[in-house]
Amino acid sequence: MMNANEAIAYIHSVCWKGSIPGLGRTQELLRRMGNPEKKLKFVHIAGTNGKGSTAAMTASILRKAGYRTGLYTSPYIYRFHERMQVDGQEISDEDLAAITEYVKPLADTMAESPTEFELVSCIAFEYFKRMQCDIVVLEVGMGGAMDSTNVIEVPEVAVITNIGLDHTEYLGDTLEKIAETKAGIFKEGGHAVVYRGTPGVESVFERVCAERHVSLKKADFDGLRSVSHSLDGQVFDCGARKNLFLPLLGDHQLHNAAVVLSVADTLIEEGWKISEQNIRDGLRDVRWPGRFDIMRRDPLFIIDGGHNPQCIEALVKNIQDYLPGKKLVVLTGVLADKDYVDMYQPVMPYVQQFICVTPPNPRKLDADKLAAYLESTGIPASPYAEIADGVKAAIEAAGQDGVVLCFGSLYMIGSIKDALDAM
Questions:
Q1: Which pLDDT belongs to residue 291?
Q2: Checking DSSP bridges between strand 328-333 and strand 403-408, what pairing results, if any?
């Protein structure tokens, strides 16, 4: 019998790393598995930013409505098991081991081996089928048309969140080209909900929907109004719905919530039984870790997993809205292949000092190299070899009334949480 650690080691060891376009390998493996995905219904979510939050809110509402709800997301923040959940519970070690053991011989004998993400997607489909999910909220890994999640038949709703320039080497170098790739999840005769974008982006969505006879809803950003916000959450109106509470912080999360409300309306139109109370309760109780996430107070310790330009823009807005006049101690680490100069620039006016650590990833940038770069911009920066030592130093530097803000690589968030838990 395989155990969970062996299952994860096998998943990480598959010989094709990275991203190789094409659905053929996923389709072949699923065929060998008896096509578990054909026994499921889906809300399919693509986009550059906000996919995870949008998926978490949607799943939370469906759970409140009494549906057994699967949630598939990536990457994970704290542990691999987060990527597949049913009714808010992560896959168990036993289920992960058993399903991987079932899939392994089917994958190992394929002429062309599946990639790691394809393998994980197939394991997730099998898990959701075994758990007899009523509906699965399925997040696209990257892109849309050629993403391995796009093997599903027509979903209940196909959703596209905020679009930005990311993974341009795979998806295209203009917003319109990226929109075209993402719109690959719109299937003949289906329903689509999109985050409002530039006129060019919206016209791509309109054209693809017209060609494929897909009904299109654009999220109601005009009807969106912030009522109040604090570090505990925000109250907002959206169209006829008033005084909704959302624990996720930031103006961009209200826009994601508007998308989710349009998704709920579409599902209701299709006969899913979701009440207004289910919608309120689902938004109120949503949990999505690592996004401007308050881990402790005295000093305030906030983790933010944002790492592309749009995420950093949202982070700066949150600093202005929630932490006015505070001097920040920033605990950070990055991967060497990220454009980290652009990442730190917008945040610099708010930073008192940087504490640098090395993310546990082969593509890491060493903490002392990062500290040397940051120091050269005129802000004090100290490197720490161990993440736990960096956490301790950041808390001491912030003092009682200060703020520690962690952002940079998602890969270091798990170790930071472990260090906090151990204190």
A1: 87
A2: parallel
